């Protein structure tokens, strides 16, 4: 595991708890899911599903949410990325972004199911706002991470 | 992958249906503190600048304003002191128990739960400052919530607006008791099971009743916003607005009750 992979995940953790006002929280992109999807797609031999699960568990500890809440979503998302990376990597960036929207949407949906089990009210399509913003961030992330990857020779 | 999904589901159900994970959680949650500390740094810096880089004129002006305010408050307090002792004397006449003065501790907000459906915050006081689970948290305007878990130097506070939270209250005007529960909206609370015949109107102040033993009695909780009376329904739908400024308060008060032993403080 390259130290920059860990650093990127740490940055994602920090960004995911930056305090915002209560009403703005729906708009926060899913940084951890974004980073996990990136490493699962562009470094799939070194970033497995188990790593994604560990990230999810850590994310739950940091976000103070029930254990397994985002671990569940991240495992599924990482698994789908591993199945599809060969095809998706050859797509244009905006097409990849659409795929990322779907992946993060699945992640949010799983989170929402868990929330439903815990009697938290589920507002139907509003939770997809975050997925949309995450997808908009995807091209930016790919471009910067790609240069970082080449610069520091991350396998 | 299926194994990991299964493990996550098992963890989730253990966390939801049993209490087995909560002692472990209070240890692990220590790891989350540095992240909240880091994200809190920018606002800390801004606060520092606000405090230390101020012109002399502003300081003098502020000082004057504060002194004026203090004078007004002190005058009010003098009256309060007389009323307080009178109240105690009257209570003694009626042979009822004495009102206890609550001790408070000021804490600062460190972080906000990132999940949009959870109304929780993290404050910078923990076991070290004798914070205990179940302790009431207030701001200058009313009750905010209660402590739900403590670590070494932080604590998690569940707001009264979270939809897993309910608090027993009474109407300040006539003393009718009821229960206020959160609906997951920061600006509204719902009163559950209000009979159609109950005397409640918009504008009524709801005050914590202290029933249930968790919250101290007599702190303002919410003000009734709307009362919707439908003769076809067994209960009226009543909504109230929390008096505490849940979205704004950065400094909160933790109330210590006299003779209260923590309900499960972790060391």
UniProtKB/TrEMBL annotation, chain A:
<protein>
    <recommendedName>
        <fullName>Rod shape-determining protein MreD</fullName>
    </recommendedName>
</protein>
<comment type="similarity">
    <text>Belongs to the MreD family.</text>
</comment>
<comment type="function">
    <text>Involved in formation of the rod shape of the cell. May also contribute to regulation of formation of penicillin-binding proteins.</text>
</comment>
<feature type="transmembrane region" description="Helical">
    <location>
        <begin position="97"/>
        <end position="114"/>
    </location>
</feature>
<feature type="transmembrane region" description="Helical">
    <location>
        <begin position="67"/>
        <end position="85"/>
    </location>
</feature>
<dbReference type="InterPro" id="IPR007227">
    <property type="entry name" value="Cell_shape_determining_MreD"/>
</dbReference>
<dbReference type="GO" id="GO:0008360">
    <property type="term" value="P:regulation of cell shape"/>
</dbReference>
<keyword id="KW-0133">Cell shape</keyword>
<feature type="transmembrane region" description="Helical">
    <location>
        <begin position="126"/>
        <end position="145"/>
    </location>
</feature>
<keyword id="KW-0997">Cell inner membrane</keyword>
<dbReference type="Pfam" id="PF04093">
    <property type="entry name" value="MreD"/>
</dbReference>
<keyword id="KW-0812">Transmembrane</keyword>
<keyword id="KW-1133">Transmembrane helix</keyword>
<dbReference type="GO" id="GO:0005886">
    <property type="term" value="C:plasma membrane"/>
</dbReference>
<keyword id="KW-1003">Cell membrane</keyword>
<keyword id="KW-0472">Membrane</keyword>
<dbReference type="InterPro" id="IPR026034">
    <property type="entry name" value="MreD_proteobac"/>
</dbReference>
TrEMBL record, chain B:
<dbReference type="InterPro" id="IPR042175">
    <property type="entry name" value="Cell/Rod_MreC_2"/>
</dbReference>
<dbReference type="InterPro" id="IPR007221">
    <property type="entry name" value="MreC"/>
</dbReference>
<dbReference type="GO" id="GO:0008360">
    <property type="term" value="P:regulation of cell shape"/>
</dbReference>
<protein>
    <recommendedName>
        <fullName>Cell shape-determining protein MreC</fullName>
    </recommendedName>
</protein>
<dbReference type="Pfam" id="PF04085">
    <property type="entry name" value="MreC"/>
</dbReference>
<keyword id="KW-0133">Cell shape</keyword>
<dbReference type="InterPro" id="IPR042177">
    <property type="entry name" value="Cell/Rod_1"/>
</dbReference>
<comment type="similarity">
    <text>Belongs to the MreC family.</text>
</comment>
<comment type="function">
    <text>Involved in formation and maintenance of cell shape.</text>
</comment>
<feature type="domain" description="Rod shape-determining protein MreC beta-barrel core">
    <location>
        <begin position="111"/>
        <end position="255"/>
    </location>
</feature>
<dbReference type="InterPro" id="IPR055342">
    <property type="entry name" value="MreC_beta-barrel_core"/>
</dbReference>
<dbReference type="GO" id="GO:0005886">
    <property type="term" value="C:plasma membrane"/>
</dbReference>
